Amino acid sequence: MRTTIGIIGGGPAGLLLARLLHRAGIDCVVLESRTRAYAEHRQRAGMLEQGTVDALRECGAADRLEVDGLVHNGIELRFDRERHHIDFPVLTGGRTVTIYAQTEIVKDLIALQLADGPQLLFEAEAVAIERPESDTPVVRFVHQGREQSLTCDWVVGCDGFHGIARDTFPAALSRTYEHDYPYSWLGVLADVPPSCEELIYARGEGGFALHSMRSPSVSRLYLQVPNETFPDDWPDERIWDELSARFAIDADWHLERGPITAKSVTPMRSYVHEPMRHGRLLLAGDAAHIVPPTGAKGLNLAVSDVRLAARALIELHRTGSAQLLDRYSELCLDRVWQATRFSYDMTRMLHADPDGDAFEHRLQLARLRRITASRPAAAELAANYTGLPLPL
Ligand code: FAD
Ligand code: DHB
């Protein structure tokens, strides 16, 4: 097979890139190792920055998002049994965020792609990328039990944290930076209307809890748990009791309970791979970096990488200039490190450190109080949470 841009991975990054290139008249093929059903039902992110919504809009993938997306004007911080509203439009000059599930973005992009291209192959697992330094890199992949090859002008690795693209970089070129956190998240989906209008980030006595939502009738909740926790360690009643305790405030508020329909545990890690380009291979999204989910940045970073990759590839296609492609890694990594810093700070500020002491806990509360007492401190949180501008 032959194409201009070979895209490995049909997650949000790969699918959005395919859409942006297709609309610019650039031929591409997406290889996705999983089935369509699996890709469409993997529960993950929900909070979209304005720039992410704009990107989906620009490429005609926002029809359902316009109807079902929930626009939020802020978040609530809870600590010391008090609630504090952080007002994004007031603090940022009008910016908002939107709640719309990653599963729905993936469904919308897959539907568009299957309707009018470009080609998207499910159960097509890339096994190797050959000659990324040459003008014609080749992706070897297995589809329907048969090994095949896809010859490309450029390859973009959008194959997530466990993909193969990153490993194609020569060891002498790769630099990696990692940090593991001493806790995980237990995430649940529940058939119950959200007990709040905006997301609640709580530093409770027992640790962190997050109340998010998927629709007016479905809640998404997360609970800090120890590493190595199994979802079955947490029967439903125990989850609701712990969530209620962590969100508790000295006011008339209570958490509605309902049937839990999904439960999973996610470890927390920061990871950055530099550079994000080698020859004619680019990395985008989780393939190059991951952040702990507390700042809601992973999907949004994947989208900003892809917007830059699309711009750079389109510029090359239209003008023959590789100037942007030459700056791709540097431009992405600047944003990646800002998001890594923000996600780290949010995580450290809101979780109970199992190895921490009373001093650290008091510092966390002092940081939270500073945000709720000082407009510049709140504005700094709001600017990062709603998304820093793209560099171009
Ligand atoms: P992925 O979604 O991982 O997609 C990669 C794709 O590549 C997959 O479909 C995979 O099957 C495929 N693939 C892998 N290897 C191969 C191969 N060899 N050949 C072919 N295909 C392959 N982010 C936010 O911005 N906001 C949030 O609110 C948020 N909340 C989160 C909550 C949780 C609990 C978790 C776990 C994550 C959250 N994230 C959030 C992060 C976000 O989900 C990820 O950053 C996002 O999925 C990255 O998209 P991606 O396309 O880069 O990678
Ligand atoms: C969601 C997940 C997050 O990690 C976050 O910070 C905000 C929202 C969500 O799944 O809705």
UniProtKB/TrEMBL annotation:
FAD-binding domain sequence ranges: 3-343
UniProt KW Cytoplasm keyword: no
Pfam families, sorted: FAD_binding_3 (PF01494)
Keywords, ordered alphabetically: Oxidoreductase
This protein's record includes keyword Ion transport: no
Top-level taxonomic group: Bacteria
Protein name as annotated: 4-hydroxybenzoate 3-monooxygenase
Native species: Streptomyces ureilyticus
